[in-house]
Design goal:
Layout: E1 2-6, H1 12-25, E2 31-35, H2 47-66, E3 71-74, H3 82-88, E4 93-95, H4 96-107, E5 111-115, H5 120-130, E6 137-142, H6 149-152, H7 154-172, E7 176-179, H8 188-195, E8 199-201, H9 202-215
Helix pairs in contact: 1-9, 4-9
InterPro entries: Asp/Glu/hydantoin_racemase, Hydantoin_racemase-like, Iso_Racemase_Enz_sf
Pfam family, one: Asp_Glu_race
Catalytic activity: D-5-benzylhydantoin = L-5-benzylhydantoin; a D-5-monosubstituted hydantoin = a L-5-monosubstituted hydantoin; D-5-isobutylhydantoin = L-5-isobutylhydantoin
């Protein structure tokens, strides 16, 4: 089984971290390849960054389709371009927010999410609501650090994550916490050990869902909304290969 994990931003060190987290949880025999496009924002922190990252991400999926990739993981918690990616892929495409929500609502009745910047809070709230879990999400909390600070200031980031996870438990009444950024994936076990709260990382959740779907023989439906895009010309726009 071949799973292509795509970090839509262009920061290679974050891609390497995400790839290592994915490999640590994958079954023996699952081949994990972690990639990122070039020319996209260094981090994705808002709707504009999302939009700028999607075309290059879709090109990586198109190439993956010619290489026999079985499933794709979009390793950004905003799940940018998820529906578009499902249109061009035959196999499953898993967004890490969607995966984390599916996992946490299976193991807990109430949960909170801890993300990076305050500006991401309403984006994630809307995304969780679109996945049907808005009533079960007690809060989306922010550590008030940019994405790249997770790598630049790891001690500060971890301390703030612990603080917010404990607040989610004690104030929100959350029974589990979801990490709201792919760049947090290497902290999952330490945070759970320090707080005693079940902590879900979307990268790992997505890998396990992808393995299960491919192993079960499930593919993306091509009836209706996720059908392949219709071939058509463009007017004054470059057309991706």
């Amino acid at each position: 089984m071949k799973i292509l994990v795509i970090n839509p931003n262009s920061t290679a060190s974050m891609t390497a971290l995400i790839g290592e987290s994915a490999r640590l949880c994958a079954f023996p025999g699952t081949q994990i390849e972690a990639v990122n496009p070039s020319g996209t924002p260094a981090s994705i922190e808002g709707h504009t960054d999302e939009a700028l990252s999607v075309p290059a991400m879709l090109d990586l999926i198109r190439t993956g389709e010619t290489r026999g990739i079985d499933a794709y993981v979009i390793a950004c918690f905003d799940d940018p371009g998820l529906s578009a990616a499902r249109e061009i892929a035959a196999g499953p495409v898993i967004g890490i927010c969607h995966a984390a929500v599916q996992v946490v609502t299976t193991i807990a009745t109430r949960f909170s999410i801890v993300t990076t910047l305050p500006r991401s809070v309403p984006i994630i709230e809307d995304l969780v609501a679109s996945y049907g879990a808005g009533s079960r999400c007690r809060a989306v909390r922010s550590v008030d650090l940019p994405v790249l600070a997770l790598e630049a200031d790891p001690a500060i980031a971890e301390a703030r994550l612990i603080r917010e996870i404990e607040a989610a438990r004690d104030i929100d009444g959350a029974e589990a916490v979801v990490l709201g950024c792919a760049g947090m994936s290497d902290l999952c076990e330490r945070l759970q050990a320090r707080t005693g709260v079940p902590v879900i990382d979307g990268v790992r959740a997505a890998i396990k869902l992808a393995e299960g779907l491919v192993g079960g023989g499930y593919a993306t439906s091509k009836i209706g909304a996720y059908d392949y895009p219709r071939a058509k010309g463009t007017c004054g726009l470059a057309q991706s290969a």
